[in-house]
Amino acid sequence: MIKNGFQYLVFLLCLQIGFAQNTMLWQGYFSYNDVRDVSQSATTIFAASENALFSKNSSTNQIKTTNTIDGLSGQTIVSLYYSPISNKTLVGYENGLMTVINETDGSMLNIVDIINKQLPANIKKINHFMEYNGIVYVSCDFGIVQFNLATMLFGDTYFIGNNGAEISVSQTAVFNGFIYASTIDGIRKADIANKNLINFNQWTQIATGSWSSIETFDTELIAINATGNIHKYNSGSNSFTAYLQLPQAAVDMRASGNYLLITTPNSVSIYNKQLILVRPINSSQIIDTLVNFTCATIIEGKIYIGTKENGIYTTTISVSSAFENTMPSGPSRNNIFALQTTASSLWAVYGDYDLFYNPFPKDSYGISKFSEKGWLNIPYPKVLGAKSLIRVGINPSNENEVYLGSFDAGMLKIENDIPSFLYNPTNSAIEAIFNTNDVWLNGLVFDKSGNLWVNNSQVDNAIKVLKTDGTWQSFSTKSIIGNPKNTTYGRMSIDKNGTKWTVTINNGLIGFNEKGNIFKKLTVGVETGNLPSEDARVAAVDNNNQLWIGTSKGLRVLSNVNSLLTEDKLTTKPIIILEDNLAQELMYEQFITDIVVDGANNKWIGTADSGVFLVSPNGQETKYHFTINNSPLPSNTINDIDINSTTGEVFIATTKGMISFKGTATSANEDLSNVYVYPNPVRPEYEGTIKITGLLNKATIKITDIEGNLVYETTSEGGTIEWDTTAFGKYKVASGVYMIFVSAQDGIETKVKKVMIIR
């Protein structure tokens, strides 16, 4: 798929080394709601969410975030530890990856030793970090690993199960010269000074059963078993004695200063050194929201409680103290399933279906909106009972009117950011699946007249339109599909002729134009459409009126959408490219989830497991291929892509978070009244390009110095071009004022702008 393999390799190598620092191109939109672990310094609380970090300074209240844009992995975080001695933060992942962050300069080092161990992949999770004399003891699902913070190298690995077998270790603690490990099969103990702890015989089992945590607290060693029974260690008998039964199993225990904090999903209990409960906290005390606690710590009398749903809550030891919420602005979840942008806002939904369009179990999630005001998260109780919201449609003539498709209850209407009406079978033409109450509504695209088109799965009248006057009209697909009641529909698009293109899971692609009631179908087979699979996923119309069709097994292109109106048979073709001097099919066998066309007619192609491709207008050149290995993408599974046509920002929603790529391909304007040059002036410290935006397509741009000497000339593709401030790529131009002459393709409309460059 690569036109120039060597150049692409160089690009990838540079990107792998430098993408984390090149934050000008990328922006992260992560959720920080689901707090997995916390740690602290004397003044700062550190929190790990699903795959991003944030910290808050208790003195300045400054909040700092760290995510894949900064170089963090997009994998799932399970543990966190800040070392005050080394001023480093350790991040532990579910897959065994460990990231060390130097808090002095923000540099990161990903350590893959655990990932590379010859062990089953499902037992490499990092559960806990415990530091003792400069060595961090890393508790994993297979045993314990030593990590030296000074050398940044791993030491010995302890397999302490029976006969040296792997065993899941939840936590370790050092007490009176011994190291103790709570495991899924008992508590084990060894002399911390023993140089031969790699020998499993040096470890003694002193308790049976499954244990969730163990911690040293002042003069006590405390352990909690899997059923929530708190135990105290008795040195004389070398055993643990039950002390207190919790109402639930504990999810976290830690000593912090003069206090021991024990967390269950519904409670946090804070004990003093005499093991007297000084502050009981119940989740019901947090008003107006349902939360599940995950962990807790304390800094200078302030208690920080992590939750699964709402970031961190802060309170104090005082029983009458209120709760304050701390969380960076972001969407309510990372797994954004669908989104849509306008010039000034972005809407996202979280309901989903699997690769077979199965929405079960249905999701009870809300909605998120991003604008210049930040994130607005509308919770599920306010969406009128609509579950599994899977598609967004924004009225292009009224951005305050938003519609959401549901694979549960119909279509939700939002007015001025407030869910106002739910269209369902009782109040509209929308139909439920036979013998059920399920209404599966997808598509949601507006035509030029402002009518909203949708598809209604597993019913005869599958294509429906909500007209501007509020009336509905339905169209049967029986003439083109043998049994519509067995067909589920996905995305929909509309071309310049008003033809609706609807993808299906088992009937390929359907083209429909109500003028003449024309229905045509493209599916597999040379004579019936030549698609690589009858499971079509997206059909995108490009700027040349070609239809790019993504399926579960590759890509096809219909050369002209007019053929639906003029030809009896529709036939698509693959794009054949040369790779290593061999003819290859572009996107061969790739599961394509989305295709979006930018202002320069490039195609952004999302896949189910291979990240994002950006290909040239004709598909012959792959300009970028972004994956988790060479970009800030947190996942290679792409749910949705959309482009802000005004700014060119490309939003990419994955299963593990949303990021954007700040492209320059904006949609072409109708005239030259909004031509804009930035930055202006160009100051000495600026190293980027000058953008000229607001252009007509195919406009001619000429740039001269003040004396009229031509230094650059190009033709626009879309609404924006870039100039690298060189004279035709040879050398940087000198300081001065430069004239920018813009003329339309027909020469009738012109515009002149100036830009000042200061070297």
From TrEMBL:
Keyword Signal among UniProt keywords: yes
Domain PorZ N-terminal beta-propeller: 45-204
Keywords carried by this UniProt record: Signal
Domain of life where this protein originates: Bacteria
InterPro entries recorded: PorZ_N (IPR048954), Quino_amine_DH_bsu (IPR011044), Secre_tail (IPR026444), WD40/YVTN_repeat-like_dom_sf (IPR015943)
Name of this protein: T9SS type A sorting domain-containing protein
Native source species: Flavobacterium franklandianum
